[in-house]
Amino acid sequence: KQARQLENELDLKLVSFSKLCTSYSGARDGRRDSSDTTPLLNGSSQDRMFETMAVEIEQLLGKLTGINDKMAEYTNSAGVPSLNAALMHTLQRHRDILQDYTHEFHKTKANFMAIRERENLLGSVRKDIESYKSGSGVNNRRTELFLKEHEHLRNSDRLIEETISIAMATKENMTSQRGMLKSIQSKMNTLANRFPAVNSLIQRINLRKRRDSLILGGVIGVCTILLLLYAFH
């Protein structure tokens, strides 16, 4: 009964907690759509409400965990049959419910924290932009230089990442080609060892090709000399 009561309370708290996070995100989006300089109404109150509800849900989860531990101790006690399927099924069901509620709570809390962190960062950026717009003289120049330097750093990071990606791809291709060449060389060596006659024939063909190349080169050289002599005479 205590476990079911805590589960009902947790269910209601988690629904309200999820609605709070949704309304917080919607209010932030509406503020950005309407005006970048309009302050968010009840922003701090929503933060306080979030913290309060998070603490309450954590306390309820702790109590429900304690109840589950007591039920587990009861099922493992000497006076309770170890093969009571109904008790084990009930305990497992309550454990699954606790696990689901814990997962849902942490997921909703993480989403809320991410939205709030993003909004804080955006608010800081908007504040810097407004400060830049309202500034003058040296402040404007200094801020402009900082922005240019930041953009240069971002471009440098992007170029470095692209260069690293190209180098990694080239390395992989060269490794693959080296493996293919080693495989081809190994197959050729195997073939040459198995067929000595083929190897000898290939060497003779190469020698004949070299001889033909030398003869052809000599003929071309003689013809060239004759043409030069004929042209100058």
Task: Explain how this protein is built.
The protein is mainly α. The radius of gyration is 40 Å and the shape is elongated. It has helices at residues 2-34, 43-75, 85-134, 138-194, 196-232. The chain has five helices and no strands. It is a single-pass type IV membrane protein.
The beta-strand count equals 0
Could you describe the largest sheet, including whether it forms a barrel? none
Distance between the termini: 124 Å
Radius of gyration: 40 Å
CATH class of the domain at 1-28 and 39-131: Mainly Alpha
General shape: elongated
- Share in β-strands: under 5%
CATH architecture label name of the domain at 1-28 and 39-131: Up-down Bundle
- Mean pLDDT, rounded to whole units? 78
Uncertain residue segments: 33-42
> What structural category do the secondary elements indicate?
mainly alpha
Helix content: over 70%
Query: In sequence order, what are the helices and strands, one letter per element?
Result: HHHHH
InterPro entries: Golgi_SNAP_su1
Transmembrane segments: 214-232
GO molecular function, one term: SNAP receptor activity
Protein name: Golgi SNAP receptor complex member 1
In short:
The protein has 233 residues and is mostly helical.
Blueprint (SSEs and pairs):
Blueprint: H1 2-34, H2 43-75, H3 85-134, H4 138-194, H5 196-232
Key structural traits:
single chain, 233 residues, mainly alpha, Methane Monooxygenase Hydroxylase, Chain G, domain 1, 0% strand, elongated, transmembrane helix, Golgi_SNAP_su1, Golgi SNAP receptor complex member 1
